[in-house]
Amino acid sequence: MSVHKEIKKVTTHTLLEMKKRGERISMLTAYDFTMARIIDEAGIDVILVGDSASNVMAGHETTLPITLEQMMYHAGSVVRAVNRALVIADLPFGSYQANSKEALHSAIRMMKESGAHGVKIEGGREIKESIERILTAGIPVMGHLGLTPQSIYKFGTYSVRAKEEEEAERLLEDAKLLEQYGCFALVLEKIPAALAKKVAESISIPVIGIGAGNGVDGQVLVVHDMLGMTNEFSPRFLRRYANLYDTMSSAFKQYSADVKSKNFPNENEQY
Predict the structure, then answer these.
(1) pTM, entire model
(2) Which of 184, 188, 186, 175 is nearest to 147 (CA)?
């Protein structure tokens, strides 16, 4: 009889327990089945189906153009690959800001049609009603403060947020409010490390950072960036764990050369 080791799925409760124990949470983005399978099997705790798909998958300059239907397609592709990780999907720009009924409708569609385990939405007190309404349907909500890319045209820049005392205070208040509203976790993007540490210590829900220093409860990176598949994006917070751009490029060049020289396929590679 084969011994089948049962995989313990990561849940929102798991993340709360990890924070209590002081165990760091690993999170990466994924947008397709093949990549998600590799990430899941490597033991990453949370997979974010980010609206960064708008940039890395579709080539848009911002995250704004991607639609709910496109996000559901990506999320469904990821969910089908995953056995252990918690899969959280971004609700894209325009699918929750207008009113809380629309937010609930978007979140329900995402959960039903993609099978995601929860949703992430950007903003603080201004989206209170949307968060509360989504939660009434039993859908877990992850918050997102700091640099919120869906508001890029308001900020006018992707530079660090909350450097001024007033914005820092508001961010800390918003983080506490998101916890009160019922968010199970919070992403902090591109804010000073000291402020992020203060936020993480001030609330009981896990805080995941991207460009927010080492004083938070976990980290997230865009998978294409950390694998070195994108060359044009080099913020300070990004560590490249591989250089796949060069690896893939040389493989493609070698393939092309082999085809043209009639080296591929060889005797052993045909029927």
Answers:
(1) 0.95
(2) 188
User: What single-letter DSSP state applies at residue 100?
Assistant: H
Longest dimension (CA), the chain: 71
The owner of tokens 């469904």 is 76
**What distance lies between CA 88 and its chain's CA centroid?**
7
Q: At what angle do helices 165-181 and 128-136 cross, to 10 degrees?
A: 20
DSSP state of 269: G
102 is catalytic: no
Neighbours of 27 (CB within 10 A): 25
- Out of 189, 201, 232, 267, the active site residue is 189
End-to-end CA distance of the chain, in Å?
38
The CA distances from residue 171 to 223, 250, 266, in Å, are 27, 45, 62
Give pLDDT tens digits for 146-177: 998 888 888 887 888 888 899 999 999 999 99
pLDDT in tens, 185-212: 999 999 999 999 999 999 999 999 999 9
